[in-house]
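R.M. (postdoc): so does anyone remember the format we settled on? I'll just put the structure tokens first.
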């Protein structure tokens, strides 16, 4: 039997870390066993569904490279199929129309709660055959009254539910739209899904879905319920604390590789390996090693991973274009004749994200407009002006502008004025980058070029 998995998000929100993990696990599982992976969007909740969310789902998966073999299917396009199945179930006596008013159901619920009972539908319309032309009804599934539903969860092991605890599930609402739980079952059946990998919040739906499948004499897929994702401080994964929209990480200059690794390792491990290539993920992923416990999302670890990838991927057009995009985002105008490769090579080891890289490299692209006089004064020492002027003159006669020639000049200045080299470096660093910290200043001067470097030194000469 060909393995078939699916990812079935609802289009009522952006994809967050937890849902991306479900997508990744489902995709990897299909990849590992040469199966296929289906994208299906659950958009039957008309009030809360939104096309923007559908776009977000598709764009997030595309960005991460979690590509589907079939789909995206929209449940709203498949209503006829669900309706036909519902008619079939009514005909076979597996479902019935419930004419109970909302008011009656509300009262029943309050009554049950006040008696300390778990609220559930009392099956009034299942036992009392009503023939009515009233269109105000829901359709309910006739859940078996006795026996058990047992399934072997691929992550959690055997899970048992007593049918006596399950009420008769609504499969079609008053507005004629089939319910989520029903559509899911029919879709999984129709699309021949073999493995349903999803969040643990669906565990309670599973026995009901299995009962529906059994009533249709259908194949029962394997189920794997992934634990929930919590914050590093053990609090619930809240939308406020983390980017609830994974695509937001892309905007912040994260690389897809670090998101994939971070998400993969939420509850899955393989010996002590921390970092996986996509190919390794596909070869090594298994449901057996997925943890039952809640998984911690650690933003610091994501930063660490992103730093790793930022420093290990080749400096090619992709990275250069990403830097340019991030420069644009912070309104920095760049000229294409700057040596982007050298800038990235010099700066990336101090950056966690491409956004960082843009911010920290800004002095290459724009003039230092706000010089902090206090910072400058801190490093001014006796005769600094004369030394800077001398250095300026010497630098201006360099013919071959490279860092080694620059360092030679600076060394000679250090000797001539008996000042430690690092103080001369600091003077130039402040003049050229506007900051007290930077990578090797002579390399910066080389990349910046002779004209711009001398211009910036001259500016300092004027104000100090
Ligand atoms: Zn009823």
């Amino acid at each position: 039997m060909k393995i078939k998995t699916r990812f079935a998000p609802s289009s009522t929100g952006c994809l967050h870390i937890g849902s991306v993990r479900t997508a990744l696990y489902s995709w990897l599982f299909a990849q590992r066993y040469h199966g296929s992976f289906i994208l299906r969007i659950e958009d039957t909740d008309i009030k809360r569904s939104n096309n923007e969310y559908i776009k977000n789902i598709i764009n997030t998966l595309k960005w991460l490279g979690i590509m589907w073999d079939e789909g995206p299917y929209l449940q709203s396009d498949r209503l006829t199929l669900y309706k036909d199945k519902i008619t079939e179930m009514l005909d076979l006596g597996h479902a019935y129309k419930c004419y109970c008013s909302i008011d009656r159901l509300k009262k029943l619920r309050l009554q049950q709660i006040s008696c300390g009972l778990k609220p559930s539908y009392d099956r009034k319309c299942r036992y009392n055959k009503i023939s009515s032309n009233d269109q105000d009804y829901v359709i309910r599934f006739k859940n078996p009254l006795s026996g058990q539903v047992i399934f072997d969860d691929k992550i959690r092991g055997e899970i048992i539910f007593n049918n006596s605890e399950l009420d008769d599930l609504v499969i079609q609402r008053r507005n004629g739209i089939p319910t989520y739980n029903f559509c899911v079952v029919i879709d999984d059946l129709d699309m021949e899904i073999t493995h349903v990998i999803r969040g643990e919040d669906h565990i309670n739906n599973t026995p009901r879905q299995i009962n529906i499948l059994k009533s249709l004499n259908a194949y029962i897929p394997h189920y794997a319920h992934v634990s929930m994702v919590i914050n590093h401080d053990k609090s619930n994964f809240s939308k406020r604390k983390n980017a609830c929209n994974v695509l937001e990480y892309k905007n912040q200059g994260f690389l897809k590789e670090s998101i994939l690794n971070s998400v993969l390792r939420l509850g899955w491990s393989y010996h002590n390996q921390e970092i996986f290539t996509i190919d390794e993920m596909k070869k090594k992923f298994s449901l057996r090693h997925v943890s039952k416990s809640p998984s911690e999302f650690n933003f610091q670890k994501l930063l660490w991973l992103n730093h790793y990838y930022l420093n290990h991927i080749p400096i090619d057009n992709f990275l250069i274009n990403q830097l340019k995009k991030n420069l644009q985002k912070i309104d920095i105008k760049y000229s294409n004749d700057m040596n982007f490769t050298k800038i990235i090579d010099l700066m990336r080891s101090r950056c966690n994200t491409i956004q960082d890289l843009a911010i920290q490299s800004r002095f290459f692209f724009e003039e230092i407009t706000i010089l902090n006089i206090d910072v400058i004064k801190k490093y001014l020492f006796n005769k600094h002006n004369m030394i800077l002027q001398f250095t300026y003159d010497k630098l201006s006669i360099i013919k071959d502008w490279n860092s080694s020639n620059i360092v030679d000049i600076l060394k000679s200045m250090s000797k001539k004025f008996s000042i430690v080299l690092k103080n001369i470096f600091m003077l130039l660093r402040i003049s050229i980058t506007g900051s007290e910290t930077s990578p090797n200043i002579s390399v910066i001067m080389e990349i910046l070029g002779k004209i711009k470097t001398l211009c910036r030194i001259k500016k300092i000469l004027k104000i100090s």
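R.M.: ...and that's the designed sequence above, right after the tokens. Also worth knowing: Residues 98-100, 124-125 surround zinc ion (CB under 6 Å). The chain has a mean pLDDT of 91.
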